[in-house]
Structures are given as structure tokens and as C-alpha cells.
Amino acid sequence: MRPRCNVVVLISGNGSNLQALIDSQDESHPMQVRAVISNRAEAYGLQRAATAGIDTQVIDHRSYASRDAFDDALIRAIDTYQPQLVVLAGFMRILTEAFVQHYHGRLLNIHPSLLPQYKGLDTHRRVLAAGDPAHGCSVHFVTAELDGGPVAVQAAIGVHPGEDIAALTARVHALEHLIYPLAVRWFAEGRLRLGDRGAMLDGEPLPANGHVVRSEEI
């Protein structure tokens, strides 16, 4: 039987994607969330983790003189749990290149857009302002380029005529809660990997927009 994949999740806020990962766990799941670490003590996701019996830590970035010093402390805390995978779930910090290299190939993030479109913040408003017919979310491997790492999994929805930002945001969040646990499961099963040519699924290179999820997979 394959050993379970130890996962550490980094958060800064509510932790709804963390909750989706927690809810996806069962005895047969190849992944186990070992710890949740936040840079903010008030992050509600810490309560979600504690309720699920998962270790929590707070490492306040304001206590460190530099981004490098904070990331060094974060690495030490994460590595205590010997994770095979580190998952960013609303972690609102730009990571140093040294941090990203330390976890090369085992650091995932979810971004609320159809990458490579709309990197950065405020994606839902930008999609509506542009009048785009579709929107969605992407799970990607993290590299030194902000929101620029190889896309592993992507899912899209149509934008409804006259839809407001609250409704669109909620629908994209629902997609996130489906595809992030799926991507983590595939990684834990050894199916999803970062190769020399980008993201790979079942040993085959994925296209630039990753594996586009079909309804039967979620």
C-alpha cells in the first residue's frame, strides 16, 4: 500500500479551500493534511483545522525584519512535518525564490482565473470589466514568476449576462473547492508531477492550460 502523502497547507484567511481539502479526506485517501500554518493569528482557517484535529501554527510575517527571514522561519516550520506537498490556500504572501526552489515540484497554488489570463489580484472584477464570456480557476505549480507556474488543472464556467461580482465569485469558489482536492489527490497518487517540460499527468505532458476537468471527474 502506498504511504500517505503528507501535506502542509498555508493560509491567511477564511480557509474555504482548506475546508474542501479536509472534507475530501477519508481512510482511503492517499493524502493527509498534517498541519496548517498561517501568517495571521485571526485567520478563520486555523479554527477549521483545529476542529478537524490538525496541527496549527502562526508565523506572523510582521515579526520578521525581511521577507527572506520570514520565509526561512516558514521553511523550518513546514519541514518539521516532512511534507511531500505544500499547498497554498489563500496564502497572501509573495514567496521568495529561495522558498519556491526549496519546494520545487511540490508546491501547488490555486488561482481564480483561467491562467495565463488575469494573473494577480481582483480577477473577478477584471473579467466582468473586459466582458469575457468565460471565467474559472487554475491549479498550478508554483515558480518564481507570480501566478506563472505550469498549470496542472483548470475548470471554466460561462459568465452570465448581467452577472454581478458576488455571484460570479461564488460560482468560481465552488469550482475551486472541486478541482483543488482533485489535483491534490492526483499528486498524492503519483499521477500529477512537475517535469522538465512542465506539468505532467500519468507521465504525459499537459497542455499550457493543464488538464481541463470534465463534469464526471468532479
From TrEMBL:
Assigned EC number: 2.1.2.2
SUPFAM superfamilies noted in UniProt: Formyltransferase
GO molecular function, one term: phosphoribosylglycinamide formyltransferase activity
Annotated site (Raises pKa of active site His): D147
Key word Transferase present: yes
Signal peptide residues on this chain, from the entry's feature table: none
Annotated ranges, domain Formyl transferase N-terminal: 6-184
Positions annotated to bind N(1)-(5-phospho-beta-D-ribosyl)glycinamide: G15, S16, N17
Cross-referenced Gene3D superfamilies: Formyl transferase, N-terminal domain
One Pfam short name: Formyl_trans_N
Active-site residues, as the UniProt record annotates them: H111 (proton donor)
UniProt keyword annotations, A-Z: Purine biosynthesis, Transferase
Pathway membership: Purine metabolism; IMP biosynthesis via de novo pathway; N(2)-formyl-N(1)-(5-phospho-D-ribosyl)glycinamide from N(1)-(5-phospho-D-ribosyl)glycinamide (10-formyl THF route): step 1/1
Catalytic activity: N(1)-(5-phospho-beta-D-ribosyl)glycinamide + (6R)-10-formyltetrahydrofolate = N(2)-formyl-N(1)-(5-phospho-beta-D-ribosyl)glycinamide + (6S)-5,6,7,8-tetrahydrofolate + H(+)
NCBIfam families xref list: PurN
Function noted in UniProt: Catalyzes the transfer of a formyl group from 10-formyltetrahydrofolate to 5-phospho-ribosyl-glycinamide (GAR), producing 5-phospho-ribosyl-N-formylglycinamide (FGAR) and tetrahydrofolate.
HAMAP family: PurN
Protein name, per record: Phosphoribosylglycinamide formyltransferase
Species this protein is from: Stutzerimonas tarimensis
Record gene name: purN
